[in-house]
Amino acid sequence: MLYVVIAFLWASIWLYLLLGGADFGAGIIELISTGENRNKTRHTMYRAIGPIWEANHMWLIIAIVILFVGFPHIYTTMSIFVHIPLTAMLLGIIARGTAFVFRNYDAVEDNMQKIYNRIFVYSSAITPFFLGIIAASTVSRKIDKEADDFLSAYIYSWLNGFGITVGLFTVCICGFLAAIYIIGEVNTKEDKEHFIKIAKKMVVAAFISGAFVFLAAHLEQIPLLDWIFGHWVGNIAIAAASISLIVLWLTLDKNKDILIRLLAGFQISMILLAATYTHFPKIVLLKDGSALSLIDEAGLNKTIDSLAWALLLGSIFILPSLFYLLYSFENKKNTRSELRH
Amino acid sequence: MDDFLAARSQMALSLGFHIIFACIGMVMPFFMAVAHYKWLRTGQQVYKNVTKAWSKGVAIFFATGAVSGTVLSFELGLLWPTFMEHAGPIFGMPFSLEGTAFFIEAIALGFFLYGWDKFNPWFHWFTGVVVGISGLASGILVVAANAWMNSPAGFDYIDGQYLHIDPIEAMFNDAWFSQALHMTLAAFVATGFAVAGVHALMVLKGRNILFHQKAFRIAAIFGTVAAVLQPLSGDISAKDVAKRQPAKLAAMEAHFHTEKSAPLIIGGIVNEEEAQVNYALKIPGLLSWMAHGDSQKAVTGLNQIPKEDHPPVAITHYSFQVMVGLGMLMMLLAFIYFIALLKKKTWLSGKWLYKLFVIAIPMGFIAIEAGWMVTEIGRQPWIIHGVMRTVDAVTPMPGIAYSFYIFTAVYISLSLIVMFLLYRQIKMVSKIYDVHDDELTIKHA
Description:
The structure holds two protein chains of two kinds.
Chain A: H1 2-32, H2 35-49, H3 53-70, H4 72-81, H5 83-105, H6 112-139, H7 150-155, H8 161-183, H9 189-219, H10 224-229, H11 232-251, H12 257-277, E1 282-285, E2 291-293, H13 301-340
Antiparallel strand pairs in A: 1-2
Helix pairs in contact in A: 1-2, 1-3, 1-6, 1-8, 1-13, 3-4, 3-13, 5-6, 6-8, 8-9, 8-12, 11-12
Chain B: H1 3-42, H2 45-79, H3 81-114, H4 121-150, E1 156-158, E2 161-163, H5 167-171, H6 176-204, H7 209-244, H8 246-252, E3 264-266, E4 269-271, E5 276-278, E6 281-283, H9 286-292, H10 313-342, H11 351-359, H12 363-377, E7 382-384, E8 388-389, H13 400-432
Antiparallel strand pairs in B: 1-2, 3-6, 4-5, 7-8
Helix pairs in contact in B: 1-2, 1-4, 1-6, 1-13, 2-3, 2-7, 2-13, 3-4, 4-6, 6-7, 6-11, 6-12, 7-8, 7-10, 8-10, 10-12
C-alpha cells in the first residue's frame, strides 16, 4: 500500500506541474504580451480553463495532504526550514486565485479590472518561481537541521543560485505549457501563428534557463549531471524529452493541436522523471549527508493503508467526473464553433 | 509580539477568515438549488435571475474559501510543525477524504457555473446540488479533524509515544458528531440570516422588489429553520463538553467553584484573580441541568483543575455569552417569521419585519466567530486535549510576527475587496436582472 500512496504523491505533483503549470503559464504569457494580444490571451484563457481552473489547483492540496498524513516528518522538516518561500508561494496563491475570480465576477467593468489583472499576472509568475525554489531546496543539500543561526537555518536553506535558476526554469516551463495549450484553443490562423511564436520563444527561454540551472548546480557543487546522466532511466528520459522537443518544434505549425499537447506533456513528464528517479525513494537531501526517504519516513501501516484506501476511493469519484468535465466542455466548444461558421 | 502569540494570532486570523467563506460557500449552493428548482418547475424568470445572481456570489466565496483553505493546509505545518508531526498520521483521515469532497465540489462548480444552456436542465440543476452536498461533506470532515483535537482518539499515548494508531477511530472521535452538527446548523443560520437581511434591505429600499422578495424568502426559511434547531444541538454540545472537557465548560460559564445545583451565569464581569463573577444574573440549578440533565448534580469548577491547565476564562466566557445571546435573538426572530408565514400573513408586508432581518445581518457570523473562539480558546493550553500543549507545538523559526502582519494585511484587504464586489453585484441587480411583472412567466424552452 505504501507504493500506492507514493504513486499518488508523484501523480499529484506531476498533474500539478502539468495542469497547474499551464494555468500559471497563461498568466505569464499575459504578463509578457502587450496590447491586443494581452486581451486575446486573457479571453482565450478564461474560456479554456475557466471550468477547470479550480480543479487544477486541487492537486497541490492532495500532495500536501499525502505528505502530512503519510510522511509527517518530511512535511514538518520542509515547513520549518523552507518556511519563507512556502509563505511567499502561499501569498502568490491567494493573490492569484482571488484576482482571477474578482476580475471575472466583478459586476462593474472599470479601472479595478486593471488592478486585478496586474495582481493576477505578477502572482502567476511569482508563485511558480517559488515553487521551483522549494523544489530545488529539497535536493540542494542546503537544509541544515543543526544550524544555529537564523541565516543558515531559514535563509540559505533555499536562497542560492541553484534555487533561483530552478525557479526561473519552472516559470519558463509553465509559460511553455500554456502557450502550447492555447495554440489549440484559438481559431484564426493569425492567432495560432502568434501563439506558436510565443511557444517557440518559451522553448528557447526554457533552454537557456535550463542551461543556467546546470551552471548554478556546478558552481554550488550539486552533482546534477551525475544524477541525471548517471543512470539509464535518466538517460532515456532525457533522450526521449529531447526527441519529443525536436518533433514538437517541427510540428508546431502543422495544425496538430492534440499531438503537440501530448508531446509537451510527455516532455515535461520526462524531465520530472529524470529529476526524481535517481533519488527515489529519497525526497529531501540534507546538509549532513543524510536524506529523508519516502520509505523510512512513512507512517505506520494502518495510517498508510487508510490513506491509500481514501485516495483510491477518491479517484473512483474524481477521475470520471473530471474527465467528463474536460470532455463535455471540449465537446460543447466544438459544437458551438461549428454553429458559428 | 512574541513568536508564540504571533503564531496563535495568525492561525486564529486565518481560520476566522476561512470559516466565514467556507460557511457561505457550503450553504449558498442549497439556496441556489431551491431557486433553480423553482425556475425549472414554474418557468418564472425571476427565479432564474436569483439563481444566477447567487451563483456569482457562490463563485466569489468558493474561490476565496478555496485559497484560504489551501493556505491553512500549509499553515498547520508552517506554524505548528511539532503538532503536525505527531497528529498528521492520526487525524489525517478526514483531511484525505476532504480532499476528495472538495475536488468533487470544484468539478461540480465548473459544470454549474459554465454549464448554463449547455446541458440537460435537470443535469445542470443536479451539479448545483452536488456542489452543496460535497461542500457540506468537506465542512463536516474538517470539523471532525478539529473535534479530534478536543477529543483525541485512535491512539495510545504512552511515555511520550503515539502508539496503536487507528485513523478511522480518530475520525469518529466522541466530539465529531456534536461539533459537526452544531457547526453545520450554524453555517445555515448565519448564511441564511445574512443573505435574507441583505435582500430585506433591498426590499426596503424599493429596488427590484419582486427579485429581492423571492430571494429573501428562500434564504429566510433556511436560516430560521436552522435557528430553531440550533439550541437543541447546543444542548447536545454542552452535555458533551461537560463530560469530556470540564475545564472548557467551566471557562465558558466562568464557573470557578465546584458546586451542586450550579447556577447559569448570564452577563457579569469576570475577575480571574479573585475567581469570581461580579454583577451577573444567576439562575440556580440551570447549569447543572444543562451539563448533566439534572438540576441537582455537581458541576466541576476550575478549582478542581490544576492552575496550569486553565483556559483563559474571561474571553471564553464572554464569547460564549455572545454566541448564546445572538443565537437566542435569532431564534426569536425565527418564531416571529414563522407566525407571519403561517398565521399573520399581513406581517409579511410590514416594513418592521424586514427591518428586523436587516439588523440580524451580521448576527450569525458574529455568533460563529464567538463560538469558534469558545471551542479553540476553551481548549487551551492544549493543542491536543490532555496530550500536547500548544506552546510545545510552535515552530522554532523566529520572526513569526512579520508573517502575522503580512497575513493580517492580506486578509483585511481581501475582506474589503469581497465586500466591495458584493456591493457592486447587488447594485447591478437592477441593470442585469430588471424584470417587469408582465414578463414574469416567460416559458423557458
